[in-house]
């Protein structure tokens, strides 16, 4: 709980910093991500991102946390390409595998999200987005035993563009 | 384009601000990364999995023979989380169990085919749900055999009967009622306000030299309520004496027989020891004294009934009540003119009869609409007995009839414990619910089948049994056959004129063996 609270506090801090930055402006050293490959690392995921167009990017991402594994993809729409603060929104879909003490099985998650990527320099970025995700999981032994819900998810990480 | 970018920027600002506010207001609803969010659902799934951790076993496995190569298994489903049931079989007591089939969830029946006649098979059933299998039922054995046409097999073994040990009724015509000088008044039918058939009577003021004695066998020591029954009248005595012998002595109750017409009148509660007691009614009174019936009822309602096992050898019983069509063959082949089919008493009683009563009746008889498939009615016990002999069969004992109707699980009705208005032909306001106001063709109530596949054991016609009627169920452990003698024969099952309560499979009834009524028929066993 302590760790989670600290994460939340950090999210709040970063959010506030970037909202303030957005309003008060900053020097521009970003480049359009079109044609560039980026690697993202965050908690608890890693990803490979590619700028398909100045406004559009695609990403493969995988996440793993204590017996739950996800693999999926995202499509981004960049509202402010080429700026230090790239605001974006998008859709994602993931497959899930899990194997815990009492149950094992698979599932799917579909998400929409909005957030930003802040270029600290030409290559290094801070990444933050938030959005709801509809998650559906089922047990492999009892396929009729399913659980589904919509959860709000924050993604927080660092990106490196080549 | 500039305008569009402005809209995008404003939109995304709104999303960010909303998200920031959201993160302050609902911080605990947020998850860092997809796996963390998915864990919520996985935990829910894990909780739901507990539903499958315990799996109840099926019980009450029953096996019936359908043919020389086919048997039917039935059991009680005690679980609500099974995926199905696994049926296992072995040959002979030293065989090894192997799975022979499965059925789905909530299915409690399985037919096993391709069996060898005369081979003894053992069966057991377990439930499964993917997590694990339950422990199996106790095993049951069966030996497939050829079933005579139109009959079903009831396997050998114990079944439980409900012995009424708390209520004893002795009617004036029962052997336990000894008449010392009263006049006899007997009728074939229950009539008026008299109990059962007949009564004794005496004019009063004769010094008590005439009396009627009810010898009652008290089944268990305890307190009993004592009742008397009479048909009241203005010429009756207002002080008819009943002398009750109880554990502490005697008590004389003076009954006012000018009142309390046709009902049980309580004389009081007394303690009786197990064994025989007497209630004596004398004619030492101020008017006519009626001696009709007395009753002892255990004052403790929980002790009225006792469940006792009865063992019956296997037997075959008719799937349907004997029909007019079948009975016609008996008539056409000289059934009423050949004494070999009749008991000595029956042949003497038959005299010039050549067919059942109502045989040509357009409602009940052979010529009625559906006549051939209607159950034969208007047959006395003698005629039913003669038909059974002609067919190479016999009438069922009361215990056989009851096992055929109730199986081994003490079910209330042949089909189970719940009453359904359209499962049998009963007294249902002129057939509005079951389709028939009088007798119905046999075998039309599919849902009303008994465990062993008999039809119409409830309703349609009451069925003669071979037993004489006794006040209590004829409890003898092995193949009970009822009292050695009597005046009434057992009738079971109720008829189209019976209420739902009277159609219960454990309700006992009786009638004079010479009676020929539209509500009475029979089926046979062998």
Explain how this protein is built.
The complex is a heterodimer of chains A (162) and B (526). By secondary structure, chain A is mostly beta strands. Chain A has a single domain, classed as Porin (Beta Barrel), CATH 2.40.160. Chain A is built from one helix and eight strands. An eight-stranded antiparallel beta barrel of chain A has the order 1-2-3-4-5-6-7-8. The longest helix of chain A is centred in the first third of the chain and has 23 residues, at 2-24. Chain B has 526 residues and is α+β, with helices and mostly antiparallel strands. In chain B, a hairpin with a 5-residue loop joins strand 2 and strand 3 (71-76). Chain B is globular. The N and C termini of chain B lie far apart (99 Å). Strand 8 of chain A pairs parallel with strand 1 of chain B, so a sheet runs across the interface.
Q: Indicate the CATH topology of chain A.
A: Porin
Strand content of chain B: 25-35%
Second CATH tier, the architecture of chain A? Beta Barrel
Number of helices of chain A: 1
Strand content of chain A: over 45%
What is Rg of chain A?
A: 17 Å
Shape of chain A: elongated
Concise summary:
The complex is a heterodimer of chains A (162) and B (526). With 162 residues, chain A is mainly beta.
